Amino acid sequence: MALLYGVYTALWQLITAEGFPPKPGFEEKDVPDLSGKVYLVTGASTGIGYELAKILYSKNAKVYIAGRSEKNGADAVANIKEDYPKSDGGVEFLQLDLSDLTTLKPAADKLISQERRLDAVVHNAGVMAPPTSWRSAQGWDLQFGTNVLGPFVLQRHLQNILIETAKFAPKDSVRVVFLSSIGSHAAPAGGINYENIEAKGIPPLTSIPGLDTWLKYAQSKCANTMMAKGYAAKYNDTGIIAVAPNPGNLKTDLLRHSLLLRTLGWTFLHPPRFGGLTELYATLSPEIDQSKNGSVIIPWGRIGPMRSDVIENCESGGALKFWNWLEEHTEGF
């Protein structure tokens, strides 16, 4: 019953507010000069992260594009600089692999050694619906390892510089963005199946052929919304705001493991720029203040809903419980 309810909720959101959103209310023209500010965007060599990085750089920010492929990162840096030759900002590639937790502290240390501030971290990178046999370097289901554990560990190593930045940056401007998805509505009851993740996310969440990888994606993306809620609860005295945007249904490389979506996507998928605008709203919009801390954001920049049972779980301490579970299960990295 919980599975049917989750799938129904995801489909309902797909055909209503999140699937066919109104025009963006916060775009490039609304972004002030960002000279002196520093941003980190993971997975920004392509797709919506690339779109966000372009906008930030065009407004004179220093942008770190984080990812696995040095070649793709170098190409993205070169293309962004070519597109905005008048920018006084900076753009640099930072190598890391979210599916290998050992790579994250060295990457964070490199950034910290070069910067005295960090205004926002956008945990944009992720994977969707790969073969269920694929594992992270530490043996986790690849989606949970990449979409959840990687961002969590990276965030932990960047936390101190964010806290220090919040002491002198404009109020409510320092942000942490955990990227969610419309798929989060199809997550297990309460958002997280602890029996599954205690076994490193490997056991199936369903016996229905072909559906398990999608349910694990949904769980990982609902985990991202709970991470934003947990962060807001744990660090509510730092001045840092955490949010979890669903960027929208978009034509990006995230679809590479789904032939069906690549084939039929023209009917309901949008250009990557719109997802970049959702992330832009999450990262910079002045509408987001402490009263919105921990919120879900929907396309193309609006405060949105969570499933009622997930809200109840979070408000009864479930989000902080999950955050503490992540701390325990990533100890040593």
TrEMBL record:
Please indicate if the UniProt record lists NADP as a keyword. Answer: yes
Q: Which GO terms describe its molecular function?
A: oxidoreductase activity
UniProt xrefs under Pfam families: adh_short (PF00106)
The record's keywords, sorted A to Z, are: NADP, Oxidoreductase, Signal
Position of the signal peptide: 1-19
Give the family this protein belongs to, as stated in its UniProt record. Answer: Belongs to the short-chain dehydrogenases/reductases (SDR) family.
What is the recorded name of this protein? Answer: NAD(P)-binding protein
Q: Which organism is it from?
A: Orbilia blumenaviensis
